[in-house]
């Protein structure tokens, strides 16, 4: 048996490596030569705990190889990005992957789409591949007769815990037909210990979006509460802690905004699909997206209120969430960039997971990366807590005395 995984990013690479770790031959496909070469050397191009060892072992054993183009296989798993541009999901990478596997398809093959997609995408993908392969019969919901099998099976792993969650999480398996679901279940059984829950492809597509929209709406509730509390001069962290003692209340934590490439994006796919009714989901996005500017306004006030020359600011954290190195779509980074562009302060940035500032910040003479958060705080007039990385909890409250504190994560609340 051979599985071909298309797209070797944050989802595709761990999936390919874990399937190979279970003794199945895997061909990983990526359009970037650099990624293909890195993996074929037994190395990885992303940061994820323990993934390097699993990938290296799979490559050494000859079970995982990477290439620019797919070959023949029994199953094809598509895990390419689906970005959101101009108010629409951009499915170009999904269709490009579909076009690249079409000539390789044989009777009995399984195609699984894992990429986050608007409802109906799997059916569109089938139409596209079917047009390229008129010699094969593709599945439709109303007939069990087909030469190839197709399912939508979304990933739901948490960055930073991918290897555990890939194996242990339950999975939703949305086959076009019952047989398609059963073929997909057999594939995921290779490595997945969780429950494999069968449904149709459109429900599975919306299910993925629903999970992330649920979290986004809940974070928006916490972020809105933080704005309410600011107006009423009430400590939001204490408020949430107290409310969460109610047996049926579980409020999430406010922060500087919602980052990452999933939760801040996926709810828009629902809004795009049902714009007239997805009102709460849209508003939640707007609430969360407005959060970085609220933090900037507070910093501006602190700068305005500072007496005695140009203030020095310590910015703690740039990543999109605690204890990861990922800066993509990070509200903390967005805040740092806006502040750097303002140019009316000297900025010491602490981010223990990086060793150089990202380009947009590196260009400013008044912005520098510091190794020691304690030193940054010691020199600062204004301290802004943006990401509650583990190490920051060791900072003593006495180190903050006499400074203006803007704590977006409630570390010192
Ligand atoms: N955040 C808050 N307050 C909270 C929780 C999170 O402000 O109480 C912020 C974080 O700081 C971060 C953003 O939300 O900026 C998202 O972080 P996250 O840890 O909630 O989620 P991700 O983006 O790392 O991963 C999510 C997960 N989805 C859900 O928990 C429903 C993961 O399971 C998905 O697989 C992943 O999206 C994905 O790829 O879709």
Structure commentary:
The protein has 413 residues and is an alpha/beta fold. It has helices spanning 12-21, 33-40, 51-60, 92-101, 121-132, 162-168, 178-189, 201-232, 236-243, 266-273, 279-289, 291-305, 331-342, 359-362, 373-379, and strands at 2-6, 25-29, 64-67, 75-78, 84-85, 88-89, 110-113, 149-152, 171-175, 196-200, 312-316, 346-350, 367-370, 382-385, 404-407. The site of ligand SAJ has 19 residues, from helix 8.
Give the termini distance in whole angstroms: 55 Å
Order of helices and strands: EHEHHEEEEHEHEHEHEHHHHHEHEHEHEE
Query: What percentage of residues falls in helices of 4 or more residues?
Result: 40-55%
Q: What is the domain total for the residues?
A: 2
Q: In the CATH hierarchy, what is the class of the largest domain?
A: Alpha Beta
Averaged pLDDT, please?
96
Quantity of strands, as a count: 15
**Named CATH topology of the largest domain:** Rossmann fold
Major β-sheet, in short? 8 strands, mixed
Helices, by number, come to 15
CATH architecture of the largest domain: 3-Layer(aba) Sandwich
Cα-based radius of gyration, to the nearest Å:
24 Å
Low confidence ranges = none
Give the name of the CATH superfamily of the largest domain: NAD(P)-binding Rossmann-like Domain
The unique ligands bound to this protein are: ligand SAJ
Strand residues, percent? 15-25%
What global shape is seen? elongated
**Strand order, largest beta sheet:** 3-2-1-4-7-8-9-10
Structural class: alpha/beta
Family: Belongs to the UDP-glucose/GDP-mannose dehydrogenase family.
Domain UDP-glucose/GDP-mannose dehydrogenase C-terminal: 314-413
Protein name: UDP-glucose/GDP-mannose dehydrogenase C-terminal domain-containing protein
Pfam family, one: UDPG_MGDP_dh_N
């Amino acid at each position: 048996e051979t599985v071909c995984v298309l797209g070797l990013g944050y989802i595709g690479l761990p999936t390919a490596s874990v399937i190979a770790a279970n003794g199945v031959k895997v061909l990983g496909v990526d359009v970037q030569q650099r990624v293909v070469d890195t993996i074929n050397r037994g190395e990885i191009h992303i940061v994820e705990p323990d993934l390097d060892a699993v990938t290296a072992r799979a490559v050494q054993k000859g079970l995982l190889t990477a290439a620019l183009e797919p070959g023949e296989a029994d199953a094809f798993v598509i895990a390419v990005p689906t970005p959101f541009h101009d108010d629409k999901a951009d499915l170009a990478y999904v269709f490009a992957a579909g076009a690249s596997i079409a000539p390789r398809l044989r009777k009995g093959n399984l195609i699984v789409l894992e990429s986050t997609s608007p409802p109906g995408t799997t059916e569109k993908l089938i139409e596209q591949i079917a047009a390229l392969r008129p010699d094969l019969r593709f599945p439709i919901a109303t007939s069990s007769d087909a030469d190839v099998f197709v399912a939508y099976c979304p990933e739901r792993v948490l960055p930073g815990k991918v290897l555990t969650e890939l194996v242990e999480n339950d999975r939703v398996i949305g086959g076009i037909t019952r047989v398609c679901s059963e073929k997909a279940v057999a594939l995921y059984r290779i490595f997945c210990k969780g429950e494999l829950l069968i449904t149709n492809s459109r429900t599975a597509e919306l299910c993925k979006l629903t999970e992330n929209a649920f979290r986004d709406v809940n974070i928006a509730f916490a972020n809105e509460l933080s704005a309410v509390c600011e107006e009423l001069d009430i400590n939001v962290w204490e408020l949430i802690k107290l409310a969460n003692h109610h047996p049926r209340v579980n409020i999430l934590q406010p922060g500087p905004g919602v980052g990452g490439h999933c939760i801040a994006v996926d709810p828009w796919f629902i809004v795009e699909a049902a714009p007239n009714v997805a009102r709460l989901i849209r508003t939640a996005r707007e609430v969360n997206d407005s959060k970085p500017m609220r933090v900037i306004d507070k910093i501006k006030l602190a700068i305005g209120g500072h007496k005695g020359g140009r203030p020095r600011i310590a910015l703690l954290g740039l990543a999109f969430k605690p204890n990861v190195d990922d800066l993509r779509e990070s509200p903390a980074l967005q805040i740092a960039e806006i502040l750097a562009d303002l140019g009316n302060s000297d900025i010491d940035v602490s981010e223990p997971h990086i060793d150089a500032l990202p380009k947009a910040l590196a260009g400013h003479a008044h912005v520098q990366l510091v190794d020691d958060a304690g030193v940054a705080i010691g020199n600062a007039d204004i301290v802004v807590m943006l990401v509650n990385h583990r190490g920051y909890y060791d900072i003593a409250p006495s180190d903050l005395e006499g400074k203006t504190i803007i704590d977006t994560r409630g570390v010192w609340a």
